[in-house]
Write a structure and sequence with these properties.
Protein name: DUF3617 family protein
Radius of gyration: 22 Å
Strand content: 35-45%
Largest sheet: 12 strands, mixed
Strand order of the largest sheet: 7-8-9-10-11-1-2-3-4-5-6-12
Shape: globular
CATH class: Mainly Beta
Number of strands: 12
Number of helices: 6
Keywords: Signal
Oligomer: single chain
CATH superfamily: Lipoprotein localisation LolA/LolB/LppX
Length: about 260
């Protein structure tokens, strides 16, 4: 019997490694999806996160964050776009050098270059003024939550229903992982803040980071103030997560930030 127990222990140690973590399922509804729903699965372990996106039209993608690096994964194309501090630093330096060269160009040539750059990188314009307004209480599934509305200039763009993380320990752990991702994105902003490239960055979860709680429901609005997408938390599970869940799938091509911005394959 003792040998059997030892053998079982060795087998478990040699098996696929797992880490205890939190897994959250979200239902996604799009206004233009003719009643079809998509899904998101969020995995969190320590300061590692992964979100798997399955759209209503069947498109499959993921966002992985680990080791101070973000990976945007396109499963259909088997391509990962890598974003880290070194890549942002390099691209920002190149952009600053380009802007200095443009400053010495004749006005017509400079305008042509600016137009071309905005076409490739539309986020280079003046960033909008963003503000958050706190509202009353609501209910999202089984969770009571408080409403927060995000405005971009004077346009309503998102609404968050935030549940108290003290009510559910797993919500608190998930939020800690999101905060780690937010801190990483803020560090990228500091690297790029003095270049026009820096204006393109939208910090993931930045606005949620400034609110109390966890977003159990998120609504996105179109330019007419109508709900374009709604994401609602459906389940939270604490379970072991396979270690390779936070790794790049084998056989996928990893693209640098520079090649991504230049449109190279």
């Amino acid at each position: 019997m003792k040998r059997l127990i030892i053998a079982c222990a060795v087998f478990c140690l040699l098996g696929s490694p797992t880490w205890a973590g939190v897994v959250m399922e979200m239902e996604v509804r799009n206004a233009d999806a003719a009643g079809k729903t998509g899904a998101e699965t969020f995995y969190a372990e320590g300061e590692m996160t992964r979100t798997d996106f399955l759209s209503a039209n069947g498109k499959d993608s993921s966002l992985i964050f680990r080791d101070q690096t973000m990976y945007f994964v396109d499963h259909a194309g088997k391509v990962c776009q890598k974003i880290d501090k070194a890549g942002v630093d390099q691209l920002s330096s190149q952009m600053n050098a380009m802007m200095k060269q443009m400053a010495s160009m004749p006005p017509e040539q400079r305008q042509m270059m600016e137009k071309m750059m905005k076409g490739r990188m539309p986020g280079m314009g003046k960033p909008p003024v963003r503000r958050v307004e706190e509202g009353g209480m609501d209910q999202a599934g089984e969770y009571p939550c408080r409403l927060f509305t995000l405005f971009s200039d004077d346009q309503k763009v998102q609404e968050f229903c935030m549940a108290d993380t003290g009510v559910e320990a797993d919500l608190h752990e998930a939020m800690e992982a999101i905060h780690a991702l937010s801190r990483f994105a803020e560090s990228l902003m500091k690297v790029a803040e003095n270049s026009p490239f820096g204006k393109m960055f939208q910090i993931p979860f930045k606005d949620v980071h400034e609110m109390d709680g966890y977003p159990v429901r998120t609504r996105m609005f179109d330019g007419h103030g109508k709900v374009a997408q709604e994401r609602t938390l459906t389940t939270i599970t604490r379970r072991d997560i396979e270690k390779d869940r936070f790794e790049i799938p084998k056989g996928y091509k990893v693209k640098s930030l520079e090649s991504m911005m230049q449109g190279r394959r």
